[in-house]
Amino acid sequence: MKENKIEVKEKLLIEYLYLDLSCCERCQGGYENLKSAVQALALPLSDYDVAIKHVYIDTEQKAIAHKFLSSPTIRINGTDILGEVKENNCAS
Q1: Distance between CA 13 and CA 10 in Å, rounded?
Q2: How does the average pLDDT of the chain come out, rounded?
Q3: In this structure, are strands 79-80 and 73-76 parallel, antiparallel, or unpaired?
Q4: Of all helices (H) and strands (E), which one includes residue 64?
Q5: Residue 45 is part of a domain; what is its CATH number?
Q6: pLDDT, tens digit, for every residue of 43-83?
Q7: CB within 8 Å of 41: residues ≥ 6 apart
């Protein structure tokens, strides 16, 4: 009898937290770069169950709940990929 093996992939949650995708060039550019990076890594990420979650921060309560410090923010499995925030003015 053939044994059925169920492959369990490790989960990889990528969160993209942002203030405005409609006019903010920094947020738009970050989102496009994130999509490109995930597409470029498709083969190495094939062993993972990858989910991308967009989090629109439109209230102070959401910012507090998500511990949101800067727009945009990218987190992988809850960890900010930058590690440290260095703010500068956004021209948009």
Answers
A1: 10
A2: 80
A3: antiparallel
A4: helix 60-65
A5: 3.40.30.10
A6: 677 788 888 898 999 999 999 999 988 888 899 999 998 87
A7: none
